[in-house]
Write a structure and sequence with these properties.
The chain has helices spanning 20-37, 52-60, 127-138, 144-157, 167-176, 182-189, 195-206, 226-235, 267-275, 299-316, and strands at residues 10-13, 41-45, 65-67, 78-82, 101-104, 117-120, 208-211, 214-219, 243-250, 253-260, 280-283, 287-293, 325-326. It is an alpha/beta fold. The protein has a seven-stranded mixed β-sheet, sandwiched between helices. Strands 3-2-1-4-5-6 form a six-stranded parallel β-sheet, with helices on one face. The N and C termini lie far apart (61 Å).
């Protein structure tokens, strides 16, 4: 921390369109900063929180998130970046600011090496796992709200310990479970969705193609960024599917969510290789995402990029089929 500003507030910034992992991690860091360093903080985000479960999590656990647009960043001498890293393209950290703290579980980026305090653990599958261990080591008690948030983050990020789970996540989930508000957790996991949700799912199914064991889905106009990842998760339930890529356009950008059933694959590397110079991409072994900024491009241009990117992904996943078949044949 900078000297002379001990009591100044810290800005805790998550990646855009924050998920349960980034939200819970920010909650835990806020708790640690206050109780161990006497520092108050503000949790800020950019983008849209569209997934019903995420909105319910924020509501029921009373998470005090603030849109970054309402924050005067220059008033904060210290910025903590959680579940993200500088210059990755997935967060709204001002380009002229360097964070004081970075806590993340993705591979270490070059820009992060210049940060004063770095806790990056690529061998962990969830950032909330790192935060949970910090609280445990500090000796501070877990209240039920924080325990529920951290537990849900670990559970959702690993699909109930069914995806990208390691010994750490299994151990911490077991540790947190007795402190979880079970009824609250059930309400979060079973959050009601609007009618439009089913329209989007219907559109995605209509525009899904099978290339052997690879599924490609397209949503030209996504209602919110989270729905693209939701569709990818949904389609991975398809029998014998090995890969799924869901494309969507939102706010002028092309967004992609990738999923794989192969624990030995590297979805993040596949996405970075496919996207290349077009945009930013990253992820883990079994899940990844990408963003290609094309706000000034026409829909025809976006469709062309999606077509070319689809071809790259099919080649990288060894799905050498000239023509896919419709998932649902009417």
């Amino acid at each position: 921390m900078q000297t002379g500003v001990k009591k100044s507030k810290v800005l805790i910034l998550m990646h855009d369109n924050p998920d349960p992992d980034s939200i819970a991690s920010a909650m835990g860091l806020q708790y640690l900063l206050k109780e161990t360093a006497g520092r108050e903080s503000v949790m800020a985000y950019s983008g849209v929180i569209g997934r019903a479960e995420n909105r319910m999590m924020i509501k029921l656990l009373r998470v005090p998130l603030v849109p970054l647009a309402e924050v005067e960043v220059s008033l904060f001498p210290d910025i903590a970046l959680v579940d993200a890293q500088p210059l990755t393209g997935n967060n709204s950290l001002p380009v002229d600011r360097s964070p004081t703290i970075v806590i993340d579980h993705h591979p270490l980026r070059a820009a992060t090496r210049k940060v004063q305090y770095v806790e990056v653990r690529p061998n962990y599958n969830v950032t909330a796992s790192i935060i949970t261990e910090f609280v445990m080591v500090s000796g501070l008690p877990f209240d039920s709200r924080l325990a529920t948030a951290l537990f849900y983050a670990i559970k959702s990020e690993t699909e109930g310990l069914g995806r990208e789970v390691g010994e750490v996540e299994a151990r911490l989930r077991h540790f947190l479970y007795p402190m979880v508000e079970q009824k609250t957790l059930a309400r979060i996991e079973n959050a009601r969705v609007p009618r439009e949700y089913f329209k989007v799912i219907h559109t995605a199914l209509e525009h899904s193609q099978l290339y052997g064991d690879v599924v490609i889905a397209r949503l030209e106009q996504a209602t919110h960024p989270d729905i693209i990842a939701e569709v990818a998760d949904f389609l991975m339930r398809l029998e014998k599917a090995r890969w799924c890529f869901c494309f969507g356009t939102f706010n002028g950008d092309i967004l992609v969510s990738a999923r794989s059933t192969d624990r030995h694959s590297d979805a993040g590397l596949v996405m970075r290789t496919a996207v290349g110079e077009w945009g930013s991409a990253g992820g883990h072994e079994m899940m990844a995402g990408a963003k290609i900024p094309l706000k000034s491009g026409s829909m025809a241009r976006k469709r062309k990029v999606i077509k070319l990117l689809t071809q790259r992904l099919l080649e990288l996943t060894h799905a050498h089929q000239e023509h896919g078949e419709k998932l649902i044949d009417y």
